[in-house]
Amino acid sequence: xxxxxxxxxxxxxxxxxxxxxxxxxxxxxxxxxxxxxxxxxxxxxxxxxxxxxxxxxxxxxxxxxxxxxxxxxxxxxxxxxxxxxxxxxxxxxxxxxxxxxxxxxxxxxxxxxxxxxxxxxxxxxxxxxxxxxxxxxxxxxxxxxxxxxxxxxxxxxxxxxxxxxxxxxxxxxxxxxxxxxxxxxxxxxxxxxxxxxxxxxxxxxxxxxxxxxxxxxxxxxxxxxxxxxx
Length: 230
What we know:
The protein is α/β, with parallel strands linked by helices. It has helices at 50-57, 80-90, 106-117, 121-134, 150-162, 180-195, 207-210, and strands at residues 6-19, 22-35, 39-43, 65-70, 73-74, 91-95, 168-172, 200-203, 215-220, 223-229.
């Protein structure tokens, strides 16, 4: 693991959802720090707050209380426009359901974060092709998602997550919709990214998958049950 010092931290993080007459406290005072080059598995039973924590780390949601510092900037209460800028510049996402745009080709899907950064078209296309090649999809550049297998779609999602050189790659059950062979392929790719120095935070329910990570943060009832560095 390459340790580049602290790149993000949450302190006393809380998140409350009001659903009609019911109030759900998804996170209750969570404090963790992320260091450059770490591979962290976030685990815990359903409803423990794993995805809520990942959404806040990914600036897809805001905390109800506490602080989130990303790359030295407190992003806890920024407005949606600024959070959108931070997502496109500093974060890469890999979702269980791939979240590809069905009307776009492989190379166009990979380009999406660069479009939001305003990168010139020629440079954007060249970079997207480079990252398609990195995940082994150079022969599928102009295919649409429905023409790809699940494993190939997830490789597109990983290339899209990498193309903006993010500070953190956030993966939410990235092998959840894949067969075991495709899932292993994706996990090997994440291993390679970690070995190249990328910081990876992955939500998983699988003990076997979590064994690939160097650190496991386990949540229970919205709190950190343990934070173990192997």
